[in-house]
Every structure is written in structure tokens, then in C-alpha cells.
């Protein structure tokens, strides 16, 4: 039960934290840091939090080293008149908490990412989780769309590439629509082509 005398921001914070929101101390290993960022991003998505709410809420999930780092970094950006958005926060987070070697490995993983046996929702989640390790792609909408489409399975690739979406949101929506259409056509028995080949290769 929330306090009726609380301010809207206090109520919002209590509601947000009631989801057992993960905290970050900044002393965790890179894998745990990556897991924290994925979890917090997924929670923001599920709550339909817009950019400004994400930038205000995230500070409450940082502790110790991580909180000190962000307070200092935020002050520096504000002094320079830099607009702080969620993409900027994530970019700075990657630089601070992931070693160069780790970022390079993840960047290579992103470059080689293919849909494979993943459905579109899973592919999008994987794509998003690795995108921050490829800033040259993340900051270029056309390159991001190309990377996403080229990683799709052939049957979905053909349908999405025909419409040639202009932005990433359109590419995701078209991919979801293509997958749904294929599911309907095949009586909910649709299996990505790569998985079909795996089944066909198995001995009878």
C-alpha cells in the first residue's frame, strides 16, 4: 500500500522498487554488470518508461562505486550543457564498467549475430543487449537497420527486405509481422529454416 501523502515522484519510485529492481555497486565482474543492465532495460521496457523517466530512475539503483561514478559523470555532462538521455547513460556505462577486451569480444559477437533458432522477440532482445558494444552501428540508424535485417533468417529476411524499412522500429515491426504471417500460413508449425535443416539432418 502506497502512502497517500507521498509526492508523485516518491510514489513512482516505491512502485518501481516494488518490482525488486536490481542494484549495482560497480564492483561486480563484467558479466554481472551486463546482466544488471539487461535486467534494468527489460524492466524499463515492460513498464513502458520513456527516456526521461529512465534517466531519473536509474540513479536509485546505483550504490557505492557505481553511484559515485554516475553523480560525477552526470555533473560533468550538465556543466558542459550535454543533453543526458538513456542512450548516453548506457554508452558511458559500457566505457566505465567493461574492459576494452570484453567490449571487443562483445562487439565481435554482435557482428556475427544471426537469428538462427531464435524467434523475433528473442532476436531483438539479443540484438539490443549487444548493440551498445558496437557504437559505430548504434549511432547510425541506417547501419543498425542493415545489421538487424541481414541477421534475420532467409524466409523472414526476404519479406522484411522487400519493404526496406527506414528505421529500426519499422524493421522490428515488419519482422514481427513476417514471423506472424509465416506462423499462420504453416498452421502454427513454423520453424525457422536453420532449425528445419537441423531436424532434416538428424538420422531417422
Cα separation of the termini: 59 Å
Structural class call reads: mainly alpha
Number of domains: 2
| Overall 3D form | globular
Secondary structure: number of strands: 0
- The percentage helix is 55-70%
Instruction: Outline the low-pLDDT stretches.
Output: 1-7, 196-204
* H/E element order: HHHHHHHHHHHH
Mean pLDDT: 84
Characterization of this structure:
This protein is mainly α. The chain folds into 2 domains: 90 residues, no CATH class; 98 residues, no CATH class. Helices cover 67% and strands 0% of the residues. The chain is built from 12 helices and no strands. It is globular. The N terminus and C terminus are likely disordered.
In short:
This protein is an all-alpha fold. The protein has 12 helices and no strands.
Descriptors:
204 residues, mainly alpha, 2 domains, 12 helices, 67% helix, disordered N terminus, disordered C terminus
List the helices and strands and how they pair.
Blueprint: H1 8-17, H2 30-46, H3 51-57, H4 64-79, H5 86-97, H6 100-111, H7 120-131, H8 135-138, H9 141-150, H10 154-163, H11 168-185, H12 193-201
Helix pairs in contact: 9-11, 10-11
Amino acid at each position: 500500500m502506497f502512502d497517500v501523502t507521498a509526492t508523485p515522484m516518491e510514489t513512482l519510485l516505491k512502485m518501481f522498487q516494488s518490482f525488486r529492481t536490481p542494484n549495482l555497486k560497480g564492483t561486480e565482474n563484467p558479466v554481472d554488470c551486463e546482466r544488471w543492465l539487461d535486467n534494468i532495460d527489460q524492466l524499463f521496457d515492460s513498464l513502458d518508461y520513456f527516456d526521461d523517466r529512465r534517466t531519473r530512475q536509474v540513479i536509485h539503483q546505483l550504490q557505492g562505486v557505481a553511484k559515485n561514478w554516475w553523480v560525477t559523470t552526470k555533473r560533468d555532462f550538465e556543466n558542459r550543457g550535454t543533453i543526458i538521455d538513456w542512450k548516453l547513460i548506457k554508452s558511458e556505462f559500457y566505457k566505465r564498467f567493461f574492459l576494452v577486451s570484453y567490449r571487443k569480444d562483445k562487439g565481435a559477437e554482435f557482428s556475427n549475430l544471426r537469428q538462427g533458432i531464435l524467434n523475433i522477440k528473442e532476436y531483438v532482445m539479443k540484438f539490443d543487449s549487444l548493440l551498445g558494444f558496437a557504437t559505430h552501428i548504434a549511432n547510425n540508424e541506417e547501419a543498425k537497420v542493415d545489421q538487424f535485417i541481414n541477421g534475420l533468417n532467409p524466409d523472414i529476411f526476404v519479406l522484411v527486405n522487400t519493404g526496406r524499412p527506414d528505421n529500426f522500429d519499422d524493421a522490428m515491426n515488419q519482422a514481427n509481422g513476417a514471423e506472424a504471417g509465416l506462423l499462420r500460413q504453416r498452421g502454427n508449425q513454423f520453424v525457422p529454416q536453420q532449425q528445419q535443416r537441423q531436424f532434416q539432418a538428424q538420422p531417422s
